[in-house]
Amino acid sequence: MKIASECKQIQRLSACLTEISLKELFMPLTRNPVYMAAEKSGCHSACVIPAAILKAVEVALEMALPKEVRVTFINEDDSSVRSAD
Question: For residue 2, is it within any domain?
Fold first, then answer.
C-alpha cells in the first residue's frame, strides 16, 4: 500500500512497517513495534499516526469497531473549538 503523506517522517514510518502480529499489537508502548518504528523514523512524540495505525489494525482484524476518532482542543477563554483532524 502506498502512503500518501507529505510528512517525511510518516513516509519513513510506512517504509519500516510492513506487517504486525497480533502479539505485537498489544505490546507495551516501550516495546511496541509501531512506536519503535515511529521513534526510528523521527516522528514527534505527540504524533497521533502511530495510535491511528494500531487502531486501524484492530479494525482490520475486527477487534474494534470503525469509529471516528478526533482530538479536540477547547479554548476556555473564548469558547472556540479547534479540532486536530
Answer: no
Domain span at residue 29?
8-84
Closest CA to 69 of 42, 49, 44, 45: 49
**Residue of 84, 62, 64 lying closest to 73 (CA atoms):** 84
Q: What's this model's pTM, rounded to 2 decimal places?
A: 0.78
The Cα angle at residue 15 between residues 60 and 63, in degrees rounded to 5: 15
Per residue in 44-76, pLDDT tens?
999 999 999 999 999 999 999 998 888 888 877
Give the count of domains, the chain.
Answer: 1
Q: What angle do CA 23, 52, 59 make, to 5 degrees?
A: 60
